[in-house]
Design brief:
The protein folds into two domains: 3-211, Probable tRNA modification gtpase trme, domain 1 (Gyrase A, domain 2, 2-Layer Sandwich); 226-324, Elongation Factor Tu (Ef-tu), domain 3. It contains eight helices and 18 strands. The chain has helices at 3-11, 51-56, 102-114, 141-148, 182-194, 202-211, 248-256, 314-319; strands spanning 15-16, 22-23, 34-37, 41-47, 72-77, 83-92, 95-101, 122-125, 131-136, 158-161, 164-168, 175-180, 198-200, 262-269, 280-283, 293-300, 306-313, 322-324. A six-stranded mixed sheet has the order 10-11-12-9-3-13, sandwiched between helices. The chain has a five-stranded antiparallel sheet with strand order 5-6-7-4-8.
């Protein structure tokens, strides 16, 4: 983490663990107006004369859909179509920025570099130069409008002010992702605190991602899921018209020739400790050698329950016999807020 930003966080009562996850004293589990220090997020820069052609051949989404006012979700898969990572992609000049869990960069960056060969492309970890902040609640709208001149008018929309970027993120209440240099993050922080925004970390932001059914692939879930299993095709995370990329044949075959047997659902269970990403699901009626499913992410809410995202066999959901394998806790899975297509 940037030393200037780390000192700023510490001066405001925050502590960082080895993964750069930020915590504050008396940090709320939920808040209607919150400023989230997202130390867990990192940034990969892809620049160079052939950056577009290079990245277009590696990601599941179509870079041609990006613009100065639109970001997108995307993923990088292995040859079997399983996601090794997913991330937000935004255009930066003639290059691109990938925003993803910092823990994933040590695996993703060297893998992408394997495909560079003689291409005129530079890939750099910018995580120590860029700060990510999450801003939650309608309380932030006036502040952000004054700072950026306007707000993004749709999910994944973005606005810029100099070297600062603001992306609107889907969710049950308004929220935005700020990406910018430490000095800009510090001034935004001070403005948000003047609005009495509660200080929070990545857990609150992840809880809102869960409620919006936006998956995050971590080291524990790497190579477990084809994009459609986590509904990435339903949230502007996959293009089926862009052409070839690593794993594209498998992803396309599932879309056009196969039948989707697993997809991602939400659940809330009475547990005081959230199951770890990758935790397995059991179903008495499942005949799959891969198990009945797995947890994508989970967080505690203010009621003391656990909210989670899980990829599960559709048949097991319909039988209503799913449980967490480790604890035996029954799971009642619900569709995501954006729903499922009628034909799926």
């Amino acid at each position: 983490m940037n030393t200037q930003w780390q000192s700023f966080i510490t001066a405001h009562g925050g502590t960082l663990d080895a993964s750069t996850k930020v915590r504050f004293p008396d940090m709320p589990i939920e808040a209607e107006c919150a400023l989230c220090a997202l130390g867990e997020l990192g940034v990969i820069a892809i620049d160079g004369a052939e950056a577009t052609d290079f990245l277009q051949a590696q990601l599941s989404n179509d870079l041609r859909e990006l613009s100065d006012t639109h970001a997108q979700l995307s993923s990088h898969c292995n040859a079997k179509g399983r996601m090794l990572a997913n991330f937000r992609v935004l255009r930066q000049g003639k290059g691109y920025r990938l925003i993803l869990p910092r823990e994933q960069i040590a695996a993703v960056l060297p893998r992408l570099k394997m495909f560079v060969l003689r291409a005129q492309v530079d890939l750099v970890d910018l995580s120590d130069e860029i700060v990510c902040l999450g801003l939650i609640g309608a309380c932030m709208s006036p502040l952000l409008t004054d700072r950026f001149g306007s707000l993004p008018d749709s999910d994944n929309g973005l606005v810029r002010q100099g070297d600062e970027c603001l992306i609107r993120i889907a969710g049950p209440i308004p929220r935005w992702l700020f990406v910018g240099p430490p000095s800009a993050a510090e001034s935004l922080w001070q403005q948000a605190r003047e609005k009495d925004a509660a200080l929070a970390g990545g857990d609150l932001w992840s809880l809102h991602d869960i409620r919006a059914a936006i998956p995050t692939i971590t080291a524990a879930t790497r190579a477990l899921f084809v994009p459609q299993m986590t509904n990435m095709h339903l949230i502007d995370g996959v293009s089926f018209h862009k052409g070839c990329y690593t794993g594209q044949e498998v992803v396309a075959r599932m879309q056009y020739l196969g039948k989707l047997k697993r997809r991602m659902y939400l659940s809330e269970v009475a547990l005081d400790q959230p199951p770890a990403p990758g935790s397995l699901l059991d179903s008495a009626g499942s005949q799959s050698g891969q198990g009945a499913g797995a947890v994508v992410d989970a967080r505690l809410n203010a009621a003391g329950h656990c909210e989670l995202l899980a990829v599960a066999e559709i048949a097991a959901v319909e039988r209503n016999d799913l449980r967490l394998a480790e604890t035996g806790t029954p799971l009642k899975l619900q569709p995501p807020p954006y729903g499922f297509p009628q034909e799926v």
